[in-house]
């Protein structure tokens, strides 16, 4: 039967974390909060609102809902200016061959991302046509490790969770896939992806034979 291969966006298809970092750092600076690349690690896979709360926590700062709303808008405007010139050169190594192989075998490809900017990013890097379904931060109410984003993607394609395979770089995303009884494939640092069923440093290590081994 047809499988659903569900891809996370940031850290899997593209490295937008570096742009999120620049935009959050700008805001943190204006608020007098020290925000380092190490802090940024904790924001990977985390929603925009939750990210702001974590940053405010770093500075022991409290804020009104109006202030938070204003800062979220500002952060996103800065982020959008940083990603404006993204193009296909920013697709991470090995991703395109894997997408092409999955498609050549007749399986479904979906996006399962926390980002509300996922669609414009897929357009910019010119890979929209690969996706049979897209579920992003605009579509879900529960953030990873809740499996909502992946389960919705599988449902849209009419595929069971057991026939779904998730590529993720965040701990919360791996947990979400596991909770839903999907096959989880961690991409990135092995130390943080211990819970994944399979693990690869990046997509250049994923051979067609590995994808094939998932198809039975
Ligand atoms: P936005 P993913 C996540 O993307 C990022 O890893 C995370 O850092 C970001 O806060 C979140 O998207 C929301 O992004 O502000 O664009 O809505 O890894 O789930 O693809
Ligand atoms: Mg990610």
Automatic annotation (TrEMBL):
What this protein catalyses is:
beta-D-glucose 1-phosphate = beta-D-glucose 6-phosphate
Q: Look up the record and name the cofactor or cofactors this protein needs.
A: Mg(2+)
Q: What is its EC number?
A: 5.4.2.6
List GO BP terms, alphabetically: carbohydrate metabolic process
Active site annotation, chain numbering: 8, 10
Keywords in alphabetical order, please: Carbohydrate metabolism, Isomerase, Magnesium, Metal-binding, Phosphoprotein
Q: Summarize where substrate binds, as residue positions.
A: 8-10, 24, 43-48, 51, 75, 113-117, 144
Q: Which SUPFAM superfamilies match?
A: HAD-like
Kindly provide the name given to this protein in its UniProt entry: Beta-phosphoglucomutase
Per the UniProt entry, what species is this protein from, by scientific name?
Answer: Flavobacterium fontis
């Amino acid at each position: 039967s047809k499988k659903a291969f569900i891809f996370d966006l940031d850290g899997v298809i593209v490295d937008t974390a570096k742009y999120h970092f620049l935009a959050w750092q700008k805001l943190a600076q204006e608020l007098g909060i020290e925000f380092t690349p190490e802090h940024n690690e904790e924001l990977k896979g985390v929603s925009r609102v939750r990210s702001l709360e974590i940053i405010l926590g770093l500075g022991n700062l409290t804020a009104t809902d109006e202030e938070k709303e204003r800062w979220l808008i500002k952060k996103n405007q800065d982020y959008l200016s940083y990603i404006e010139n993204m193009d296909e050169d920013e697709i991470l190594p090995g991703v395109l061959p894997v997408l092409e192989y999955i498609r050549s075998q007749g399986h479904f490809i979906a996006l399962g991302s926390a980002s509300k900017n996922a669609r414009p990013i897929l357009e910019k890097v010119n890979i929209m046509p690969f996706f049979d379904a897209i579920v992003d931060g605009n579509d879900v109410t529960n953030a990873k490790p809740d499996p909502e984003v992946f389960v919705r993607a599988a449902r849209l394609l009419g595929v069971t969770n057991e026939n779904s395979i998730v590529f993720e770089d965040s701990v919360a995303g791996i947990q979400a896939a596991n909770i839903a009884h999907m096959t989880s494939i961690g991409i990135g640092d092995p130390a943080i992806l211990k819970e994944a069923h399979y693990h690869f440093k990046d997509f250049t290590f994923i051979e067609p034979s590995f994808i094939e081994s998932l198809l039975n």
